[in-house]
Amino acid sequence: MADSVIAVRGVTKSFSGVKALKGVDLEIRPGEIHCLAGENGSGKSTLIKVISGVYTPDEGTIELNGTAHSRLAPIDAIMGGVQVIYQDFSVFPNLSVMENLALNTELASKRKLVNWRRFRRIAEEAVAQIDFKVDLDARVGTLSVADRQLVAISRALMHDAKLIIMDEPTTALTKKEVDALFRIILDLKARGISILFVSHKLEEVFEISERFTILRNGEVAATCLPEELDRRKFSYFMTGREFEDGRFTLTNRSDEPVLEATGLGLQGGFEDVTFALHGGEILGITGLLGSGRTELALTLFGAFRADAGELRIKGRPVTFHGVRDAVDAGVGYVPEDRLTEGLFLERSIGDNIVIAEIDNVAVSAGVYDDTRKRAEADRWISELRIAAHDQDNAASTLSGGNQQRIVLAKWLATRPDILILNGPTVGVDIGSKHDIHQILQQLAGEGIAVIVISDDIPEVIQNCNRILLLKAGRIVQELDPATTSEAQLAALMTSDTTGGQQ
Amino acid sequence: MTSNILESRPVRAITRDSHLVRLLGMLVAIVALFALVKPESFLNLRTWQSMAIQFPEYGLLALGVMLTMMTAGIDLSVVGIANMTSIGAAVLMLSLAPEGASGGQVALAIAVSIAFALVVGALAGTLNGLLVAKVRIPPILVTLGTLELFTGIAIIITAGKPVSGLPPAYGEVFAGKLFGVVPVPVIVFAFAVAVVGLVMNKTAFGTKILMLGTNATAARLSGLNTTGLLVRTYLFSGVLASLGGLVMLANYNSAKADYGSTYTLLTVLIVVLGGVNPNGGSGRLFGVVLAVLILQVLSSGLNMFPNVSNFYRPLIWGGVLLAVMAANYFSKDGPLLRRFSRKERSA
Q1: Which among A79, A149, A452, B178 counts the fewest CB atoms within 10 Å?
Q2: What is the distance in angstroms between the Cα of A192 and the nearest Cα belonging to chain B?
């Protein structure tokens, strides 16, 4: 009996001269829950692809169930019980649960005709393995993210899996769903199936992982037990940098409020939202997905029209008839999903930065000054330390952290009084996250009123001077981050204090 | 000095864009081929003059289609607008300056009719723009509908017959030749290209419509007035189409509801051949101009071979479009080689 399901020894892999993996070792024991962590570009995905046989390593061996391979074909990996569940789960959203589950088996046995009874039997067996209750005839596209994930897990288990690799499995799940997922994983572990989590967030998988392997620049920075890790060490191993977790301190609070909302409401979004925001503050608004946080942000930014209540900016009542009005009133908004809502991926970095203030770099009659535009873009590239070689390159050529800085630059260029950020550091690596936090604190220090909408608990506690807790469209509590612990806030977010509603 | 020009930004922008380089190469190759095979008829001022009278008709229409396609839309109604406005202008011209009118009266009638045509073109484009931006009907449906609508109006006005008997002065000026050499239609086209070029490269509007075409949501959330931008783009296209109509009116010395009916798809072909992304957000005016020239040289060149019938023209045009698209696919930065390099990396 081998003492490891899979053992990767001294694997090196380079792509056109760039080494993505340099002598990496990784060993996963039967029934072990192992976490593979690392920043974007650290080699995590390459390593997974080596394990699943997609890439052939340049050097090193992969030992699968005790047999050493120098090249592993994808089919060998599958026969050896390695299953990968990617972030998008690779399910067919337009097919039913039953079809999704049975398709592989049917294709593998090379059947030409469809037997629906056999389909159903295969699917029933598959969901029974994890005791997953689901309507087999429902279309997968209509299921929740968590259920789609369970479909993918059921499917993976059908092939006599020994090791299931899960790529960022908890990102889009609610707390309850994560708990349910973890129960299933513990059950799989009890049956001797190993799990490899891939993640770049410590919080997500800390409570369940038994061992960590942390990659940095293609090398193993650390292999350790959870007892040996805390957030600080984790960040250090991932980035090689020590971060001062500088807490935000209020230094430049304006006397008069910049933004006041009174009884603000939006049908189907939120109701009776009242708060005042002063210049120099960083106000956290936190709540789960569906709490109305995004609707509130978009209403403050003029994209939605509030149907109740009043909004005042610098004491004057305002009605926004569209985003332009809000921008003219000095509001900027960094959206939740930068790829679909914030960036013009194929356009140049320069155009992306100046677009919101393009009419201001224009000289008379809409004719603009290319030199001025370029100078403006370059200024923000250096100010926010955006790693761009040439502002003529497309925005898509940059990493997530740098893209987020472009969106930030776009708004800072309009010199806003109020900056609203919805999930400012979702999907950016630790280094950039730290830098973005520094920038926000610095902006508040310069007197800008900042609203951070986020469910990243450490983020709001560290960077805000006040936190509003949003639940089912209502502000249920105002918290002082100085006296609130992360655990307390997490408990408050998920508890049922609104009575009845979820 | 030469190296300075070669390294200047506009030239670099062209040489950096491999699609433009290919189009340019293709144009040179076609011209060279015809010049070698049929030097006496191809290298002849008359040939080039007749080309310069023809291509502005659909070239002007293509410019409008290009602008709308950059916003991720399309304008299929350009031919309808061109015919409707040219018929309107012709009818107005005839009523203001009946036979035997004085020279001053004719001049005034022509000026008023041209202004009228441009205004009607602008209104027609505005209608397209409002339906696209406000009512949110997909552009392809809106403009297919208005193509029928405008053509229908043109048929009703004329009862399907051509409107002719225009004051000769109109044709003398607009189908004439400047200094007896340069046909006026090509000057109109050059003027329109210059205006569109200035708008695209020197105004915020040009950048904005490309940004809008790239990502409409992000454009809205960046505070752009997306409705206004779309309306103005379709309006612009309508004005260019009416200009095309006026050129056709001069070239044929008459107006009819079904002139240029093959131009609808031809303009789309030109714009795509010119490298404008049908999904919006990218494209270059220079590429579209090259595509217009390529198709005109091809069709004029083929005319010089009596045994190649005109029936071959669509076949050859379609072939050119597919060849250029395939060349993009196989090129260094095209999808095919990118896939190869990825394979190489993964091997």
Answers
A1: B178
A2: 32
CATH architecture, domain A6-239: 3-Layer(aba) Sandwich (3.40)
Q: What does the block give as tokens for A293?
A: 């946080």
pLDDT tens digits for range A400-457: 788 888 999 999 988 899 999 998 888 777 778 888 898 899 999 999 999 999 888 8
Residues of A in contact with B16 (CB under 8 A): none
Q: Considering only CB atoms, which chain B residues are within 8 Å of A323?
A: 220-223
Domain residue ranges of chain A, discontinuous segments joined by +: 6-239, 257-494
Residue type at A165 in one-letter notation: I
Rounded to whole angstroms, the Cα distance separating A359 from B214 reads 19
Token pair 């001077």: residue: A465
> Can you tell me which residue has the tokens 């997968």?
A140
Q: Where are the domains of chain B?
A: 18-30+39-328
CA dist., res. B122 & res. A217, Å (int): 58
This model of the complex carries an ipTM of: 0.81
CATH topology match: A6-239 vs A257-494: yes
Q: Tell if the CB–CB gap between A355 and B222 is shorter than 8 Å.
A: yes
Tens of each residue's pLDDT in chain B, 347 residues: 444 555 555 566 666 677 888 889 889 998 999 899 888 888 888 889 989 999 999 999 999 999 999 999 999 999 999 999 999 999 999 999 887 778 888 899 999 999 999 999 999 999 999 999 999 999 999 999 999 999 999 999 998 889 988 888 888 888 888 887 899 999 999 999 999 999 998 888 999 999 999 999 999 999 899 999 999 999 999 999 999 999 999 999 888 888 888 899 889 989 988 988 888 888 889 999 999 999 899 888 888 887 777 777 778 878 887 887 777 667 655 544 444 444 333 33
Nearest chain B CA: its distance from A321 CA (Å): 11
pTM of the model as a whole: 0.79
B interface with A, Cβ–Cβ < 8 A, is: 202-205, 207-208, 210-211, 214-215, 217-225, 281-282, 341, 344-347
Q: How far apart are the first and last CA of chain A?
A: 48
CATH of domain B18-30+39-328: 1.10.3470
Candidates B203, B224, B345; nearest CB to A366? B203
Tokens of B175: 């189908």
Q: What is the CATH number of domain A257-494?
A: 3.40.50.300
DSSP letter assigned to residue A307: S
